[in-house]
Write a structure and sequence with these properties.
Helix content is 0%, strand content 48%. The chain is an all-beta fold. It has a single domain, classed as EutN/Ccml (OB fold (Dihydrolipoamide Acetyltransferase, E2P)), CATH 2.40.50. The relative contact order is 0.25.
Length: 98
């Protein structure tokens, strides 16, 4: 699993039939300190994430192991929306700045 921020969406009017109904998100990877990296990925959304949210995503064969992506031609899937994370006992992120 990897951390990323949702930075946009992808709309494809023509796509493989099994992808119809899947929302596609553009993600920018972030490191453990919350800093964005140069890595971007398009991922199927299995949890209803929105722009600006921090998410956990999986890639490779793991991406096809959610109910939304089972047996579908996806290489990345958003499978969780992050509420908070800590590193070494220090809170690095808290959703909505709480």
């Amino acid at each position: 699993m990897l951390l990323a921020r949702v930075i946009g969406t992808v709309v494809a009017s023509r796509k493989e039939e099994t992808l119809i109904g899947l929302k596609l998100l553009v993600l920018r990877a972030i490191d453990a300190e919350g800093k964005e990296t140069s890595t971007t990925v398009v991922a199927a959304d299995a949890v209803g994430a929105g722009e600006g949210e921090i998410v956990l995503y999986a890639s490779g064969s793991s991406a096809r192991q959610t109910l939304a992506t089972d047996k579908k031609p996806v290489d990345a899937v958003v499978m969780a929306i992050v509420d908070q994370w800590e590193v070494g006992g220090v809170t690095k992120y808290k959703k909505n700045g709480e």
